[in-house]
Structure formats: structure tokens, C-alpha cells
UniProtKB/TrEMBL annotation:
Its main location: Golgi. This is CMP-N-acetylneuraminate-beta-galactosamide-alpha-2,3-sialyltransferase 1. It catalyses: a ganglioside GA1 + CMP-N-acetyl-beta-neuraminate = a ganglioside GM1b + CMP + H(+); a globoside GalGb4Cer + CMP-N-acetyl-beta-neuraminate = a globoside MSGG + CMP + H(+); a ganglioside GM1 (d18:1(4E)) + CMP-N-acetyl-beta-neuraminate = a ganglioside GD1a (d18:1(4E)) + CMP + H(+); a beta-D-galactosyl-(1->3)-N-acetyl-alpha-D-galactosaminyl derivative + CMP-N-acetyl-beta-neuraminate = an N-acetyl-alpha-neuraminyl-(2->3)-beta-D-galactosyl-(1->3)-N-acetyl-alpha-D-galactosaminyl derivative + CMP + H(+). It comes from Triplophysa rosa (Cave loach). It holds the Pfam family Glyco_transf_29. GO terms for biological process: lipid metabolic process; sialylation. PANTHER family: ALPHA-2,3-SIALYLTRANSFERASE ST3GAL I ISOFORM X1, CMP-N-ACETYLNEURAMINATE-BETA-GALACTOSAMIDE-ALPHA-2,3-SIALYLTRANSFERASE 1. It is an enzyme of class 2 (transferase). It comes from the Eukaryota.
Length: 330
């Protein structure tokens, strides 16, 4: 009996030892994880604070994808008098989009821009305290019956493209417009609070902008255009040709001849906003850019644009959580 009791006591001690060492080891391991976790969070916080104050920042560099290799935060986004001189490669590319134009011609036209329009540096206020949201509204027919209107209007900036109207479509596309990107052939009047943003695909587009606010003598480009435009002169902006080339090379991998206005607009938003919400992008199954407001259909792969490649890039940006896509109905 004594032997049995001694054996049981021995086993009991052995089990207690085993149990306590497991608990100690477990706690040690757990504590270690907490230490590592806290250290990592602290280290990340100290060395790399969040780039903006939104819940998810489009520009968060902590993510492992190809975005940072392509994204150039210092690219010239908008033309002003101090950055209007073009690098030779930029001028060469831009010149290639149009009938030949000379540097001298460009310089003499651009000289007239900034006495006329505001010459400010815009959107250099990015930082950890800013959370600016952008709705980029393309013209796709997938907006019809979407009921996205209030969602679109809830963004700080609502950026529209070309002729995309709001009147009569408010339920699906919203009613606010802070920026409208256009070129002479797609121009429409905007109200006093909206930034008219010219996307100059050619020299004549800049000349037209000047003329529309002054002499009104340009009435034709490759087609008849409006000789005038209603817009707040102090809110006019002009995309920089350097930005247009950057989007073409870095983001469309030089597919097509030049990026579509919609794709340029989306990239513009990624450079001025911290959170980018994308609406109204997406062709029909047959590869046509249809509109929510008229019956026109344009093949999205054509002599100018690589719409399919642009769309794949947009889907990749969505997957990488750089943008949020609202795909609508069709
Ligand atoms: O037709 P429009 O060029 O005015 O449309 C503006 C932009 O919206 C296009 O440049 C394109 O990027 C986008 N779009 C689209 N799918 C459509 C129609 C337009 O992605 N069905």
C-alpha cells in the first residue's frame, strides 16, 4: 500500500511539474508575441505614420504591391507659371499627339495663360491630418438605376468628366460638381463653384481656353466647338502635359496613343485625394463605352485609347485597395 501511495505521489508531482512548465512556456510565448506585436506597432507608428486621416489611405506605402513603384508624388499635376517649361521628353511626347508645334509656339501661348487664370500651387496639403474623399464619376451607362446619387454627393470632391450631366439624373449620379475635366470638343458650361479642368491634348486646346475667355475667335478645331464657355475664371485649372505623359507611361504602360479623359481623371483624383471612390466606369460586354445620358457608343479600344488595358489597371487598383469601385448595374 505504501509503495502504491509513493508511486501516486511521484506521478502527481510529475504531472504538476509538466502542467506548470507548459503554462509557463505558453505564457512566455504569448507574452513574447505581445511584446513583438507592441514593438512592431510602435515601430511602424514611429517610423511610418499613416499618410492621411482616413480609415484607409490610398497612398499607404505599407502595402506590398506595385503601386509605389509607379506612383510619383512629385509629378507636376497642374500647369502654373513656375512649372510651365516642359522637359524635352515631355514636349516630344505631347507634340506627337498633334500636328507639329514648336517650343517657341508653346512658350508664347503659355505666356498668356497666367495673367488670365489663377497661378496658385494647388493640393500640396497632403499629410497625416487630412482626409479628403473624392468621387470620380465616369459616364458609363452602368450608373442608370444605381441610386448612387447621395453616395457620390457625400464626397468632399465630386469630379465629373466631359459632358456627363446631373440634371434629370440626380438619383443615380448626384448633383454636386467640384471639378469637371474637359477639352474643347467635350466642353460644357459649369457653375461658379466648379473648377473647369482642361485636359490639353493639343496646343490648340490651350489656345481655345484663352480664346473662350477673351476674344472668342476660335470656333473650330478638328470639328466645330463652342467659341465661349461659362465658368469661373478664377477656378480654371490645366492638366500639366508632364502629368499626362506620366499617366500614359507609368499607368497605361504606353498602351494606346494617350490615356482617356476618364483614366486621367481617376489618376488626378489619386493625386489630390486621400480616398478615391470610383463610379461610372465600365464598358458594355461588347467593349463599347456607353453613356448614362445618351445613345452614343464608342469602341473602347480605338486608335487613341486602350480602354481594356485601362480597365484592367482600374480593377487592379481596386484589388490593391487603392480605390473603391462602384460598378453599378450593367
Ligand atoms: O464618353 P466619355 O469619354 O465622355 O466618358 C468619360 C470617361 O468615362 C471615359 O474617358 C472613360 O474613361 C469612362 N467611361 C467608361 N465606361 C463607359 C463610358 C465612359 O469607363 N461606358
Amino acid at each position: 500500500m505504501a509503495i502504491v501511495l509513493r508511486t501516486l505521489r511521484h506521478h502527481h508531482r510529475y504531472l504538476t511539474f509538466l502542467l506548470s512548465s507548459t503554462i509557463v512556456l505558453f505564457c512566455f510565448h504569448f507574452q513574447n508575441s505581445v511584446v513583438i506585436f507592441t514593438y512592431n506597432s510602435y515601430f511602424r507608428y514611429v517610423s511610418e505614420p499613416a499618410p492621411c486621416a482616413c480609415a484607409t489611405c490610398a497612398l499607404d506605402r505599407g502595402r506590398a504591391d506595385g503601386f509605389s513603384a509607379r506612383y510619383e508624388p512629385t509629378v507636376h499635376l497642374l500647369l502654373n507659371s513656375s512649372n510651365s517649361e516642359l522637359r524635352a521628353d515631355v514636349f516630344g511626347w505631347w507634340k506627337g499627339l498633334q500636328n507639329v508645334t514648336s517650343v517657341a509656339n508653346y512658350t508664347s501661348v503659355v505666356k498668356n495663360l497666367f495673367p488670365l487664370f489663377s497661378d496658385k500651387e494647388h493640393y500640396s496639403d497632403a499629410g497625416p491630418d487630412r482626409c479628403r474623399t473624392c468621387a470620380v464619376v465616369g459616364n458609363s451607362g452602368n450608373l442608370l438605376r444605381s441610386h448612387y446619387g447621395p453616395l457620390i454627393d457625400s464626397n468632399d470632391f465630386v469630379v465629373r468628366i466631359n459632358k456627363g450631366p446631373t440634371g434629370g439624373f440626380e438619383k443615380d449620379v448626384g448633383s454636386r460638381t467640384t471639378h469637371r475635366i474637359m477639352y474643347p470638343e467635350s466642353s460644357v458650361d459649369v457653375d461658379n463653384s466648379t473648377h473647369l479642368v482642361l485636359s490639353p491634348f493639343k496646343m490648340l486646346d490651350i489656345e481655345w481656353l484663352i480664346s473662350a475667355f477673351t476674344t472668342k475667335n476660335i470656333t473650330k478645331t478638328y470639328m466645330n466647338v463652342s467659341s465661349t464657355i461659362q465658368a469661373n475664371k478664377d477656378k480654371v485649372m490645366i492638366l500639366h502635359p508632364e502629368f499626362m505623359k506620366y499617366v500614359y507611361v507609368n499607368w497605361t504602360d504606353s498602351h494606346g496613343r494617350y490615356p482617356s479623359t476618364g483614366f486621367l481623371t481617376l489618376m488626378f483624383a489619386l493625386h489630390i485625394c486621400d480616398e478615391v471612390n470610383v463610379f461610372g466606369f465600365g464598358a458594355t460586354k461588347a467593349g463599347q463605352w456607353h453613356h448614362y445620358f445618351d445613345e452614343t457608343l464608342t469602341l473602347y479600344v480605338n486608335e487613341s485609347h486602350a480602354g481594356d488595358f485601362e480597365y484592367q489597371t482600374i480593377l487592379r487598383l481596386e484589388q490593391e485597395k487603392r480605390i473603391v469601385m462602384f460598378k453599378g448595374w450593367t
